[in-house]
């Protein structure tokens, strides 16, 4: 088990577009394990690799009932709209209301390198969009229609 310190704004790694994972090797799997452990230790519902200081396109999510790990995730379909409150382990002093798609389909690779596709709605769809934004150097205040200090 390896729990990392979570990188917070304004660390520049949070502003980089992370490159794709070209090869799933032991190092990539270790990053995923560390992301999972760090997410659970921080009581988060999702984490992107840049948040532990690794600029790679990897996300982990657990909405409460299942661990989802995805490499090179891509939103291939989205529809509808929802607005709700978001927070972020990398932006510890703010919450914000963000407009997101209501329903999405995400495609990526699992840890075995197999292509996987998931449909997500509501809160899970929000978490996917939030985490994938991290891979493009976007943090939620960029998209928030309103923010509040906490
Ligand atoms: Zn975040």
What would you say this structure looks like, in words?
This protein has 150 residues and is of the alpha+beta class. The protein has one domain (12-149): Alpha-Beta Complex (Peptide Deformylase), CATH 3.90.45.10. The protein has helices spanning 26-41, 122-135, and strands spanning 46-48, 58-61, 68-79, 82-88, 91-100, 103-109, 115-121, 144-149. The protein starts with 25 loop residues before the first helix and ends with a strand. Zinc ion binds next to α2.
What's the CATH class, please? Answer: Alpha Beta
Helix fraction, binned, reads: 10-25%
Strand count, sense and closure of the main sheet?
A: 5 strands, antiparallel
Average pLDDT over all residues: 97
Amount of beta strand: 35-45%
Q: Which architecture would the CATH scheme give at its second level?
A: Alpha-Beta Complex
Task: Give the overall silhouette.
Answer: globular
Helix count, DSSP H or I runs of 4 or more residues = 2
The CATH topology assignment is Peptide Deformylase
Looking at how many chains there are and whether they match, the oligomeric state comes to single chain
**Small molecules in complex:** zinc ion
Outline of this structure?
The protein has 150 residues and is an alpha+beta fold.
What are the key terms here?
5-stranded antiparallel sheet; 20% helix; alpha+beta; single chain; 2 helices; binds zinc ion; 150 residues
Task: Detail the topology: elements first, then pairings.
Blueprint: H1 26-41, E1 46-48, E2 58-61, E3 68-79, E4 82-88, E5 91-100, E6 103-109, E7 115-121, H2 122-135, E8 144-149
Antiparallel strand pairs: 1-2, 2-3, 3-6, 4-5, 5-8, 6-7
The chain binds zinc ion.
